[in-house]
TrEMBL record:
Name of this protein: GMP synthase [glutamine-hydrolyzing]
Database matches in Pfam families: GATase
Glutamine amidotransferase domain ranges (all copies): 42-176
Cellular component terms (Gene Ontology): cytosol
Matching InterPro entries: ChyE-like (IPR044992), Class_I_gatase-like (IPR029062), GATASE (IPR017926)
Membrane-spanning residues: none
Superkingdom, taxonomy of origin: Bacteria
Enzyme class: ligase
Keyword line: Ligase
Keyword Ligase: yes
Length: 231
């Protein structure tokens, strides 16, 4: 199964030296799942020719906001809507989570409580899973018909499922402790809250559930689905 990774940004070289860019981290997260991968720098207007070029799609995080006025964001929203229509499975992480929600009628805003950084606990159907986060924007209103499947006290729509068409997560299951530490070292000024940075540093010593989310993403991609209009 071929997965197309839609890159919505790129980390500076200093951070890429730690774990690679988004596509390398996603390939590591989904290693052993019998997938092949192809990357597209959509933030530089490098798009696939068709939603059928890959068997499934994964939209990365980004330094941009989904509500910003960039041509590639509108183009990516159109791509999402087409993929959903023709039942090409699509997964969104952080910015990708927000972009899919916005494309399908949801609302994304900056969280009034500021940045969420480091290891956070999320309730997935009664099971608490720790995942690394790094965001200020979040989905504040899910699209009609979407099902929120994970949340916590500061992020109501932490994971959303759209039937068999899309699966999205606000946190970063591809981020390990090295990437969070690197972000703390290079972007803590953006966060502007020493208590949150200290908590994120403390969280580096504790495990996260990346492997569990990686398996869930892989299972979603492999699920049987039928295009609209097909028997």
């Amino acid at each position: 199964m071929k997965i197309g990774i839609l890159m919505c940004g790129a980390f500076p070289e200093q951070l890429q030296e730690l774990t690679g860019d988004y596509d390398a981290m996603f390939q590591a997260l989904l290693s052993g799942q019998d997938f092949t991968f192809e990357s597209y720098s959509v933030f530089e207007n490098e798009f696939p020719n068709s939603v059928d070029d890959c068997d499934g799609w994964l939209i990365s995080g980004s330094r941009f906001g989904v509500y910003e006025d960039h041509d590639w964001i509108g183009r990516l929203e159109n791509f999402v809507r087409e993929a959903v229509t023709v039942a090409r499975p699509i997964v969104g992480i952080c910015f990708g989570h927000q972009l899919i929600a916005q494309a399908l009628g949801g609302t994304v805003e900056k969280y009034e409580g500021g940045w969420e950084v480091g290891r956070k606990m999320y309730e997935f159907g009664g099971v608490e899973l720790p995942l690394n986060a790094w965001h200020q924007d979040q989905v504040v209103k899910a699209p009609e018909g979407a099902l929120t499947i994970a949340s916590n006290a500061t992020c109501e729509h932490a994971a959303i499922i759209y039937g068999d068409r899309a699966f999205t997560v606000q946190a970063h299951p591809e981020f390990g402790a090295e990437m969070i530490e690197g972000l703390i070292m290079t972007r803590s000024d953006q966060v502007g809250d020493l208590a949150k940075i200290d908590a994120a540093l403390e969280g580096l010593e504790h495990p996260v559930a990346n492997e569990i989310l990686g398996d869930q993403i892989a299972d979603f991609f492999r699920s049987n689905r039928t295009r609209d209009g097909e028997a």
